[in-house]
């Protein structure tokens, strides 16, 4: 059997490594709602909660650190990532702001989640960062990111299934329902990629 080769794996954090529903109870608490995770039909929670974008950004500014500190791990993400660490480059690219680096790294440490790079870019536009780190594939929950990255970089995207990213997908975007499924797909990709040394670094 052909051995696996090292991949540079781009990984979103929120809704990918963290449980995607974790923001809902906090939003309900703050805005007096009783919405369920299944009611989150759009990634833009300002639309879901019928508030202004400014109100949502203000909320995130005030509560972001608590959200990032309290979010549970998404499924078996921690154990899968620990299994990948000796074999692949784990590059986390997140829309979180740089000021949340400490709470992010503390959370990683608490759950023993390994990393090679953590790039908090403060924007949903991850294209430049993905190019910078030359990722071979990307793990994401936001449909708009998945579409942009797959089209511009022509790399596989593993899109975690959520209520807010439904719709038909192009061939390079694979809808996934668990970290176990992701682990199997990454193993397949690794078996079919040229060794890292054969690529320009």
TrEMBL record:
GO terms for biological process: deoxyribonucleotide catabolic process. One of its GO terms (molecular function) is 5'-nucleotidase activity. The keyword Kinase does not apply. It is an enzyme of class 3 (hydrolase). Belongs to the 5'(3')-deoxyribonucleotidase family. Keywords: Hydrolase. PANTHER family: NUCLEOTIDASE YQFW-RELATED (PTHR35134:SF2). The active site is at residues 12, 14. It holds the Pfam family NT5C. This is Nucleotidase. It comes from the Bacteria. InterPro entries: 5'(3')-deoxyribonucleotidase, 5_3-deoxyribonucleotidase-like, HAD-like_sf, HAD_sf, Nucleotidase_putative. Its EC number is 3.1.3.-. Coiled coil: none annotated.
